[in-house]
Design a protein that fits this description.
The complex is a heterodimer of chains A (169) and B (50). Helices cover 16% and strands 32% of the residues of chain A. Chain A contains one helix and ten strands, in the order αββββββββββ. Chain A is of the alpha+beta class. Chain A is globular and about 70 Å long. Chain B is mainly α and 50 residues long. Chain B is 70% helix and 0% strand. The chains are: A alpha+beta (169), B mainly alpha (50). At the A-B interface, helix 1 and strand 8 of A face helix 2 of B.
């Protein structure tokens, strides 16, 4: 089979580019423990409000004894509850989401937090936020006629400014 | 315009096109640098996620 020299060169270049991309992805996955959120945890969506973790009074930001932070939220048509959370930057944060109704998606701009919230499961994302500021947390999976209005707000503050005295949990 | 001899014309037709080779290399460099900038400069800069 005849292969033109230019095609051979392009095959080598494409191979090198692919190897570079896969190498970077595998390296950061192994060395930096970076991979897609893969928590598998079932929950009864019809009785979400009866669980201890996702009961209305227990939603929000909680500081753990080891200094990390857990954010528990409910995604429901058409909003995220609580509607505003304040989180410290440069601190390990675990987001835990559940929905009592349909499939939702969740994304915080300028971060790598992007996860689907599936009825019957708890979605969990672990991250360390690198920026400060106020960002919308919005639904990115079509969930019904009010989908475009489904958003909440996340304020990421410097660790020294968190938690505010009036927001301490 | 100079008239090419049949030998010159044959040599040009059988050689590897240098302009196309240059486009391949430039495209590969731009693609590689842009990908690395997005991956390490944007995605990784946003912090670890799992």
């Amino acid at each position: 089979m005849h292969v033109d020299p230019l095609e051979k060169i392009w095959i080598v270049i494409a191979g090198l580019l692919t190897a570079m991309m896969l190498g970077a992805i595998f390296y950061t996955a192994l060395a930096g423990n970076i991979h897609p959120p893969s928590n598998v945890e079932v929950i009864d969506s019809t009785a979400l409000h009866l669980t201890e973790e996702f009961a209305e009074d227990n939603l929000g930001v909680r500081e753990n004894p080891d200094g990390s932070v857990t954010v528990t939220m409910v995604a429901t048509r058409y909003g995220f509850y609580p509607q505003h959370v304040e989180i410290p930057a440069h601190t390990p944060v675990t987001f835990r989401f559940a929905t009592p109704d349909v499939l939702h998606g969740l994304h915080i701009p300028n971060t790598n937090v992007d996860v689907m919230v599936i009825p019957g499961y708890v979605s969990e994302v672990n991250t360390v936020l690198q920026i400060t500021g106020s960002f919308p947390l919005y639904c990115n999976e079509y969930c019904g006629i009010g989908h475009h209005e489904m958003w909440s707000r996340v304020t990421i503050v410097p660790p020294r400014g968190w938690p505010r005295d009036d927001a301490r949990t | 315009m100079n008239k090419l001899s049949p030998e010159d014309e044959k040599a040009i037709l059988q050689s590897t096109p240098k302009g196309t080779f240059a486009i391949l290399v430039i495209y590969a460099l731009v693609f590689g640098v842009a990908w690395l900038a997005l991956y390490f400069g944007r995605f990784m800069a946003h912090g670890p996620v799992n």
